[in-house]
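Practice problem: predict the structure.
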Amino acid sequence: MGETIFLKSYHKSHYDELIKFDLPQDQINFTALPGHAIEQMNNRIDQENLKAITIVLKDKPIGFFILDYGKDKLELTNNINSLLLRSLSINHLYQGKGYGKKAMYLLDEFIKSNYTNIEELVLAVNFKNKSAYQLYLKVGYIDEGKSREWLQGFQHLLKKKLI
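Answer:
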């Protein structure tokens, strides 16, 4: 993976490429495809608390996620100075090349540069989504043994300190 990826604020110009995303059926059970995530975001009352991020390789969107500063994060942490990472996906054509891992490392610096009050990141990952769980552990998320039951089964509640 010698090619450089970037994190960019989502722009409408990314949409056409993002809705072409392909994910295997076993992954669709665990994350929202970008088109659906964008639709859900646009329908939320608290849109000002959400920031959509596109993972870009050269000029091509290859991944997507949402940073949520709203109250949903408080289901995973008591820290009001946290962000909830939601709906991470990498187009299947680009998986297995280290782009997801690189994006998660870039996210730390992105947050430190754009959200100076954020102390930690939190997320929930399904027990059955072993590859995503391993990715998050590799990039520094901590599993303190907390979990919750959710739509597709139990989820690990992970956190990563940024300070």
